[in-house]
Each structure stands twice: as C-alpha cells, then as structure tokens.
Amino acid sequence: MAWTHLVVAGLLEIVWAIGLKYTMGFTKFWPSVFTVIAMIASFYFLSQALKVIPIGTGYAMWTGIGVAGTAVLGIILFSESAALPRLACIALIVAGIIGLKLTSSD
C-alpha cells in the first residue's frame, strides 16, 4: 500500500504544480483552493508512504513523478518546448524512477 500512496502523492504533486499556473499568484480563488487542497493531500499521501519506504527513495520518487508529469503537461497544456533533448531528460527522470522502484527492498 505504501507504493500506491507514493504514486498518488506524486500524481497530486503534478496537480498542484500545474494548479499553481492557474492560481495567477494565488489571486484566483477557486484555482487557489483546489491547488492548496491538492498540496495538502499530496503531502498526506507522501507521509503515509514514508512510514514504510526509505526517505531517500520515497522523496526522490515523489519529486521525480512530479517533475516528469509536470514537464509533460507543460508541453501539452502550455505549448512548452518538446525539443528532443528536453524529452530525453524527461525520459532519464522516468528511468530513474523505475530504477529506484526496482532496486528498493520494500
């Protein structure tokens, strides 16, 4: 269950990171509320996962899921660069996440 919590936490990190763009510096009420709720939920699920998963592995995977997902959604939603070197770097992050999971003893 800890790994499920970690994946949910990572997905919620993507939600709140993208949400920050829509808050317009926390000047838009509903996007701000939604973003803060996603932040709290993300931290909650991360804290539950870290009861079992080592902090180094868990935190790295949480941020990796968030970084890779946010970068991909930035390309899709905000027309950010999809240059090959950028996509290769995102792939490296994903490879690191997979590597951490495969080498974890938990």
Automatic annotation (TrEMBL):
GO terms for cellular component: plasma membrane. It is found in: Cell membrane. It is a multi-pass membrane protein. GO terms for molecular function: transmembrane transporter activity. Its main location: membrane. The chain crosses the membrane at residues 27-47, 59-78, 84-103. The keyword Transmembrane helix applies. Signal peptide: none annotated. The keyword Transmembrane helix applies. NCBIfam families: PRK11431.1. This is Guanidinium exporter. It comes from Nitrosococcus oceani C-27. The lineage of its organism: Bacteria, Pseudomonadati, Pseudomonadota, Gammaproteobacteria, Chromatiales.
